[in-house]
Every structure is written in structure tokens, then in C-alpha cells.
Write a structure and sequence with these properties.
The chain has helices at residues 5-23, 27-32, 50-60, 137-142, and strands at residues 34-42, 45-47, 69-81, 85-96, 110-121, 127-134. With 146 residues, the protein is α+β, with helices and mostly antiparallel strands.
């Protein structure tokens, strides 16, 4: 079903608020943008509970708790709209300072990770899905010593 301009703008404002909360590292405000039944997905790893979605944001450093990045910022560069979703292309930028299983040791370097994120919405005004494809190769390249 096509969405009108008012609904499109409401959805866009919700995503803008979501990203502003991510950039403020305000996990409570991030979670407030999600519908209770939301699903998060990062490179195929699916989170189906609010706690798992929360922990995914914490893991990367989008809260005040330690994550694999410090001072992580989300930078949207291009947006696309359809009747079902908003798609953003952009990058994350932050200091790689945290350790995590399966990742190289912290490099201390400022890294840029390109991404594409697809946001979907429910009828009650919340994010029902945040699905991200993030290019992690800069983390692994930074962890390699010549």
C-alpha cells in the first residue's frame, strides 16, 4: 500500500531520531524507537528480543557502556524511500578500542565502516526492523601488522 507524504515524513523523523540517539549513545532513546516486537539484523545475525537488539547496539559502542568502538558515530549519506522501508547508505566512524571474540585485538585506530541499513515500520509508529549490512574488513585490516 502506498504511503502518503505525511507518513513518509513521520517515518523519516523516526529514523532521524533513532540515529540521533545512536550518536548520543543514549541506549534508552534508541530502544524507544523500536516496536516491542522488532527484529534487528546485522550481517545476517538476527536479534528477536528487545534485550538482544539492545546488546547489539551496546556491542558496537552505541551506548555509554564499553563496546568495540569508542566515540562511534553514524553518518547517513544517501537515503532511499519505498512504500515499505527507508534505506540508508553511509558509514560508521570511531576508535577501535574494545575487544570481542572473533575480532582482532583493539587497534586504537580510527576506522570507517561502510554500511547499508534498511528500516521497516509497523502501523503503530515504531521501527519493526533494522537490518544492517556492515563492511567489517577495516577492523580486520587494522588488526594486521606488517
Amino acid at each position: 500500500m502506498p504511503v502518503d507524504e505525511t507518513e513518509r515524513e513521520r517515518r523519516r523523523r523516526l529514523v532521524v531520531d533513532h540515529v540521533a540517539a545512536e550518536n548520543a549513545h543514549d541506549i534508552e532513546a534508541i530502544m524507544a524507537t523500536f516496536a516491542p516486537h522488532a527484529i534487528g539484523q546485522i550481517n545476517g545475525d538476527v536479534s528477536t528480543t528487545p534485550e538482544a537488539i539492545r546488546q547489539g547496539h551496546v556491542f558496537f559502542g552505541l551506548s555509554h557502556e564499553p563496546g568495540i568502538f569508542t566515540n562511534l558515530k553514524v553518518v547517513h549519506e544517501v537515503e532511499h524511500f519505498s512504500d515499505e522501508e527507508i534505506i540508508y547508505e553511509g558509514h560508521f566512524i570511531g576508535l577501535h578500542t574494545g575487544a570481542a571474540p572473533g575480532y582482532p585485538p583493539p587497534s586504537g585506530k580510527e576506522l570507517t565502516l561502510p554500511y547499508v541499513v534498511v528500516y521497516r515500520f509497523d502501523r503503530d509508529g515504531g521501527l519493526v526492523s533494522e537490518s544492517a549490512r556492515i563492511e567489517f574488513s577495516p577492523i580486520f585490516a587494522a588488526g594486521v601488522t606488517p
